Amino acid sequence: MVSNSSLDKIQLDKRPKKALPLYEQIRSQVNSRIEDKSLKPGDALPSIAHLSKQWDVTYRTIKSAYELLEQDGVVTFKAGKGVVADSDRMLDNQGKTLSVTFVSCHLDDPYYALASTGIRRFALEKGLELTTIDVGNSKRRFINAISSPGQDVDGMLILPFEVSGYESAVQKTIEAGRKVVFVDRDLPNVNASYVGVDHFSVAFQATSHLLAVHDRPVYYLAFVDKPSGAREWFKGWRSAMQSYNHFNSLDRYIIDLAIDESELAGTIDVGLEYSIFAARRLFQTQKEEKYSIFAGNDFIARGVYIAAEELGLEIGKDVFLVGSNDMPFAAKMEVPLSSVHPIPSVEHIGYQAAKVLYEQLTGTIGNSVRQLIPVELVARASSVGPASK
Predict the structure, then answer these.
(1) Distance of CA 118 to the CA centre of its chain
(2) For the chain, how far is it from start to end, CA to CA, in angstroms?
(3) Of 81, 116, 302, 314, which one has the greatest count of Cβ atoms within 10 A?
(4) For 163-175, what is each residue's pLDDT tens digit?
(5) Region 239-260: what's the mean pLDDT?
């Protein structure tokens, strides 16, 4: 059995608002012990009962962690020995440097720039050979980067737009034997892993908050059909509205930012222009005593601020709104912007996407997975008024 000292230093976060459940923390910590070689192939791990008592957690928590580690392929349950580090799986990929390519259609977007730092951090931790390719709004560059990434590329992280030809290019690289993970947006007809924010919960939390505070219907001012995350926003907004008994005439509260994906890929300034135009149109055509708005993300919300100021409306007084992603500028605006925050950070999206790709390349994950990053609302003056300052 592994000496207790090799696991004694494991620290568990037991706070009510912990970022990860206890069994996931244990899973991560044991994997770390494997990486730093303090846990070696063939070592027997302490019993579930022993660790349950030592860490003061439930028997089921330890058992769940061990079951996940078995799914990861790094431990096995053996009769008479208990839980044992799996030597075959741990040694399969030793000595091989994995080559990974991140293909992005929107690297100049600050949100995805933050996510990409997580990809780089994971690559450094695992010694991956990482190449980043920014294809912008060029369909030809995207298809070339995906279809012909080079013989030595083992896996790809892809941030796509839904443009014709993209799905077939990704499918081609999967059929060539490469592993693919989509980052925060996917292509609906491609069977590949996905790691991204829980966009449904983003809109549901934001809309429910506004409904609870102001007791009036909430306008949806965002993309409706594309990208994939917008479809989840729309579902979350609609579900929240219906949960507050707003079933009828929802169409009048939908302000779609109808921008072609290829145009949006060029620059985030295009999206800002469209959001200003859409907010201006809302304020001029829908006369309300007060407006409640779910603005999709913080960049769209910034357009609402600009349009409101042009028309003499005050954020947090005449207009109440919530964005998402909790970008650094949100808390620094003249009227701080309420936003739905990825837990623990935007960077974590990229980190987890790279981790899932790594686990697929090393065989610890077999089938494609869909991993959603949890979110929480950060309420500020834009949604509750100046008293929140």
Answers:
(1) 11
(2) 55
(3) 116
(4) 888 899 999 888 8
(5) 87
